[in-house]
Predict the 3D structure of the following.
Amino acid sequence: MLTSDTRDIVITRILNAPVSTVWTLWTNPKAVTRWWGPEDYSSPSAKIDLREGGSYLFAMRSPAEQGGAVSYTGGVYKRIDPLERLEFTQNLTNAVGEPLPDDELPAGFSQDVHTIVELRDVHGLTELTITEKGWTKSLMSVFAYAGMHQSLDKMADRLADQEVSA
């Protein structure tokens, strides 16, 4: 919900791939590890229980020059319309997927961000729209916006390199 203290992040991209390929990039753990995380970050693991009420847990490793720490993003799938829409919560978590307590979060970081991923066919290409609802107005929301753009740049690069198969 948007209030005076929160904002929604909305990103739309046209990707040079059919919807089924982009769906795989979001729903196959091996495929997720090929693009998840901002520039210079890697994703050492991803777990996905793709069903409403199921959970996901994506790992992200910072570059060595930034310490090489691994952090985790996880949540619960709320709605799944195959090849069209994913809705899920998004949290910073520990290694087993439990949301971090407030005193372990970066300042201004929002938990339980309601995220919607929508896919639409546009003449064989995919229009991807990501909406993240309820970010606290803070520097962390700016980092989240930039980080998702960088992740999508990596996704587009993987599509160009044909690195999509499971």
